[in-house]
Structure formats: C-alpha cells, structure tokens
Amino acid sequence: MATARQTILVVEDEQAIAETIVYALQTEGFGPVWASTLGAAREALARGGVALVVLDVGLPDGSGFDFCRELRAQHAVPVIFLTARSGEVDRIVGLEIGGDDYLTKPFSPRELTARVRAVLRRGTTATTAPVPPGWTHDAARCRITFEGQALDLTRNEYRLLGVLLARPGQVFSRDQLMQAAWEDPGAALDRTVDAHIKSLRAKLRDAAPEADPIVTHRGLGYSLRETP
C-alpha cells in the first residue's frame, strides 16, 4: 500500500478509463487527481505535491509525448505513459524523452498500480541522461551506431538497446526490459532477454572489439556503461 496518500495525477480524456484508474489508485491508498486535458494537468502540477503522472499519449489539446518534453524542462516527477498505439518505436521514444514506464491499452488496473508502486520505489529522477560517448541513436530511422559503426539489429535487439541507451547507468531487471522491448511481454522469458543481450554483445564487439558497454548485474539485470 502507498503511504501518506501520495498524489498521482491521471491525465486521461476518456472518462470511463480515468474513473477505472482513479478507483484502482484509491483502492491502493493513493490520492489520484484527474485531469482530462493538458491545460488542467498544468494547473494541477502548478499546485505542487504530485508524486507521479499517469499520462495518456493522445489528448484533445495536444500530445502526451510533447507534454512530457515540456514537463522535463521544469519537473523531475516520474511519468508512466498510457497509449492505444503499439508502434515499434513508441515505447523507446517514450523512455527517451523522459518517461519511466509505458502501458498499452487495454491494460489491467492492477498492473498499472503495480507499475506506479515500482516506479515510486525506484525513486527515479526521471531525467533522461545524454547518450554516452561513442553512441548515436536516430529514433526516427530506428538506427543506432556504436563507435561510428551502424549496427545491424533485429527489431527486439533495437528496442532492447534503445531502452538501455535511454538511461545509461540504470539497472533494468529482465522483467522491465521485457515490458519495454517486447510487443507481448508475456510471451518472452528471462532467457530470451539473456539471449538477446548475448547477441547484442557480439554485434557490439564486431563494431569495437575492445569495448564491453553492457554490464551484467547478477541477480538484478543489465545496464549500459555511462562511459566507454
């Protein structure tokens, strides 16, 4: 259960969805505040005290992605994106611009509250670190280069590496990586993540034989080195 009724700002224009989220958060001991537009969300944030924002991507007065960029210039409050879109780049873009997690509609309210608790436990500053030296990431073209070499990546390899690149130094559990990089996380296993990491390491060695940018944290997960 949450403590001290942390305030969760729910930015969602569909009333039925918003009411379901608000009820689920209240049941878990949070203090949800609902905003149906970005304008109302700005007013709620200006009042202060918001511990986390649940943010729909498609809103009547603007894009949730654009609002997150605006938010990051002023606040370090964590953001969990909600969207009906399931495009290949969307999850990575959401993380790159400062989002902390991502849920595709339809979703379980219990899963959302679990994600809220997990993000708050991490105590993330929600600020996206610069891409480390030696890397470039062109999200629009789904292209990542390492030490000047364009990497020939599969779809899931690209997503997985994109998540790590968005937060250098942050340790991601296998479950977090599956949720962020796989269209159907339930169909992926821990060893699937491990296999993709092994493949990525091989391709990175081909680009720069002396480099070892992906760090294994035994029993915890993986991170990307912040320095070469």
User: What portion of residues belong to β-strands?
Assistant: 15-25%
Strands across the major sheet, in which order? 2-1-3-6-7
Q: Cα-atom Rg, whole angstroms?
A: 18 Å
Number of helices: 8
Largest sheet: 5 strands, parallel
Mean pLDDT: 83
Extended strand count: 12
Oligomer: single chain
- Helix-residue proportion: 25-40%
Task: Name the structural class.
Answer: alpha/beta
The run of helices and strands is: EHEHEEEHEHEHEEEHHHEE
What global shape is seen?
elongated
Report the span from N to C terminus: 41 Å
Uncertain ranges: 124-128
Question: How would you explain this protein's 3D organization?
Answer:
Strands 2-1-3-6-7 form a five-stranded parallel sheet, sandwiched between helices. The protein is built from eight helices and twelve strands. Helices cover 40% and strands 21% of the residues. The N and C termini lie far apart (41 Å). It is of the alpha/beta class and 228 residues long. Helix 4 links the parallel strand 6 (79-83) and strand 7 (101-104). Helix 1 (15-27) crosses helix 5 (109-122) and helix 6 crosses helix 7.
